[in-house]
Amino acid sequence: MGSTAPPLVCRAAVLIRELVRNLVDNALQYTPRGGTVTARVTPDPFGQVVVLQVEDTGPGIAPGERELVFQPVHSRRWAPTSTAAGSG
Predict the structure, then answer these.
(1) 25 contacts 54 by C-beta, under 8 angstroms
(2) Reduced to 3 states, what is the DSSP secondary structure of residue 43?
(3) For a designed S-S bond to 23, which of 13, 31, 54, 63 qualifies (C-beta 3.0 to 4.6 A apart)?
(4) Max CA-CA distance within the chain?
(5) How many angstroms separate the CA atoms of 19 and 77, rounded?
(6) What is the pLDDT at residue 84?
(7) Helix, strand or coil, per DSSP, at residue 22
(8) pLDDT value for 34
(9) Which of helix, strand or coil describes residue 9?
(10) Dist. CA 5–CA 2, nearest whole Å
């Protein structure tokens, strides 16, 4: 079966770099002083994909705003001192 095409990750390196930068930048921006931001990449147990996780102890996204983050150019400036519950 030996496909010679580069893995999809290699072909999309610029987009993946932008995605990671945006996720980490947002986590750092909205996590209060003394909070924690953790980024990790783990392999899928079946070897088909890798999983990127970015977790933080920031205020999270208000439930009514969560679907908006999937819009192409949505940006919302949540106050870092918000008391909203975390997103997970």
Answers:
(1) no
(2) strand
(3) 54
(4) 54
(5) 18
(6) 47
(7) helix
(8) 95
(9) helix
(10) 9
Q: CA 23, 60, 71, 75: dihedral to nearest 10 degrees?
A: -80
- Predicted TM-score (pTM) of the model is 0.62
Q: How many CB atoms lie within 10 A of CB 58?
A: 22
d(CA 41, CA 65): 27
> Could you tell me which residues come within 8 angstroms of residue 37 by beta carbon, excluding any fewer than 6 positions away?
24, 27, 28, 31, 54, 55, 56, 57
pLDDT tens-digit map of 8-52? 666 788 888 998 999 999 999 999 999 999 999 998 888 888 889
Interval 48-75: pLDDT, tens: 888 899 999 999 889 988 888 788 765 5
